[in-house]
Amino acid sequence: MTEPKAAPVPVRTPAGDVVALVDGGEMDCGSGLLLLITRAKRRLAPGERLGVRSAEASVVTDLPVWADLVGHTVDGQVAESAQGPWWFAVSKRGVTAVPETVFSTGNRTPLGLRLWAYTNFDCNLACTYCCAESSPRAAARRLDPAVAREAFSEFAQIGGRELFYTGGEPFMHPQLAELVRAGEGLERTILTNAMIFGRGTRRQTLEDLDRSVVLQVSLDSATADLHDRQRGQGSWSRAMTGIGLARELGFRIRVAATMYDEDAAGVAALHARLDADGILPEDRLIRPVAQEGFAEHGVHVSIDTLEPEPTITADGAWWHPVAVADPNLRIHDAPLPIAEILGVVRDTVAVQDAAARSGRTVFRCA
Ligand code: SF4
Predict the structure, then answer these.
(1) What does the pLDDT average to over 255-278?
(2) Most buried of 24, 83, 140, 213, CB within 10 angstroms?
(3) Band of the pLDDT at 246, cuts 50, 70, 90?
(4) End-to-end alpha-carbon separation of the chain, Å?
């Protein structure tokens, strides 16, 4: 016989009794509060109330807009003083207000098709713009192959197609081969600086990889100057050697360059170099530096300027791979289950789309 579910113990707040409480500190809706609320709301039953505490004044305006968009009700609101903090009680409605069809429209990669996995966070380089704050001294935070198998299998079962392995430097993970095998059946790409797989056991790992695996190599410029300035002395020539080796071994190579606006004049020379080397145009990606991690300037990114690209790490899940050093863009406290991670992203995207359609602003940091 199934035991009846115990009634949740109410949490007493100035705005009334609630089932769970989100303390948003000084976050506004655009800087992560909405993700926290969305995660908590998914664990509530229809009719149950979520408490929200916030010290950010804009939330007084934005939270009711968000609640209205998703069909919930703010039925309690108390300020501790004129300067805050503010307490809210939000009743969860029984149905989702926004249809799921909104998720596959527009130019974004349809949610659920692509998954990113950080294999580890340590790296042989310490690039000046590294969004993941990787370096030889960074904690490895290695993804466990057993966890990866479970995650990738679940992802494939619910319709996933593309898997991107990134880091840190993935070839520093001693079980990279197992991680790659765990993704069999998916279109797999490994992001690498191509500098350390030329010898020893890493060379063996490379040679044993299935040739359907694509290697995406970082190469920031046609010659060593910019690349070495951003990524370390001698790194350009070692990357070129690595690209040559991988191509000899029969791998498809995609080249990704990362540069600041002021260096964009080098793009033409880089294309000419890649033309000469036989790297096809569809295998080139030029992207701006994002102001995340070690990067002190660059393109500002936030939850409403980044299209979601769900990303798992050994210890959590994130909105986008470029934002894994940003606690405001953390989606989940574990890399599993994938369905829950995608669910949080879907709910958040639904609010973004609904806000855009109605011409209202819920996110203030764009
Ligand atoms: S940008 Fe890539 S290669 Fe450079 S430190 Fe970060 S993870 Fe390593």
Answers:
(1) 94
(2) 24
(3) very high
(4) 52
Residue 358 falls within a domain, yes or no? no
Q: What is the CATH number of the domain that holds 176?
A: 3.20.20.70
Residue 203 has pLDDT above 70, yes or no: yes
Ligand 1 pocket test, candidate residues 218, 227, 260, most atoms within 8 A of CB:
218
The pLDDT of residue 361 is above 90 = no
Predicted local distance difference test score (pLDDT) of residue 65: 81
* Rounded-to-integer distance, Cα 354 and Cα 362, Å: 10
* Mutational pocket test of ligand 1: of 118, 120, 127, the residue with most ligand atoms within 8 Å of the beta carbon: 127
Report whether pLDDT(353) > 60. yes
Is 55 inside a domain boundary? yes
pTM of the model: 0.86
Residues 148 and 31 in one domain: no
The model's confidence at residue 351, banded by pLDDT at 50, 70 and 90, is confident
Residue 48 lies in domain? 11-97
- Write the DSSP assignment of 276-331 as a string of letters: HHT--GGGEEEEEPBS-TT-SSSB---TTTSPP--EEETTEEES-GGGTT-GGGEE
- Tokens 């919930």 sit on residue: 72
The residue contributing the CA closest to ligand 1 atom 6 is 130
**In this predicted model, what pLDDT tens digit does every residue of 227-244 receive, in sequence order?**
999 999 999 999 999 999
Whether 178 is in a domain gets the answer yes
Q: Please report the atom of ligand 1 found closest to the CA of residue 167.
A: 7
Which of 123, 141, 192 has the most ligand 1 atoms within 8 A of CB, as the residue to mutate?
123
Query: How high is the pLDDT of residue 289?
Result: 94
β-sheet with 49-54: strand ranges across: 20-23, 49-54, 86-91, 73-79
**Of 32, 80, 11, whose CA–CA distance to 331 is shortest?**
32
Q: What is the pLDDT at residue 105? A: 36
Q: Are residues 166 and 22 in the same domain?
A: no
Phi-psi region of 200 (alpha: psi -120 to 50; beta: other; left: phi over 0): left
Residues 207 and 319 in one domain: yes
Identify the residues whose C-beta falls under 6 Å from ligand 1: 123, 125-127, 130, 132, 134, 167-169, 193, 218, 231
86 and 132, same domain (yes or no)? no
Please state the domain count of the chain: 2
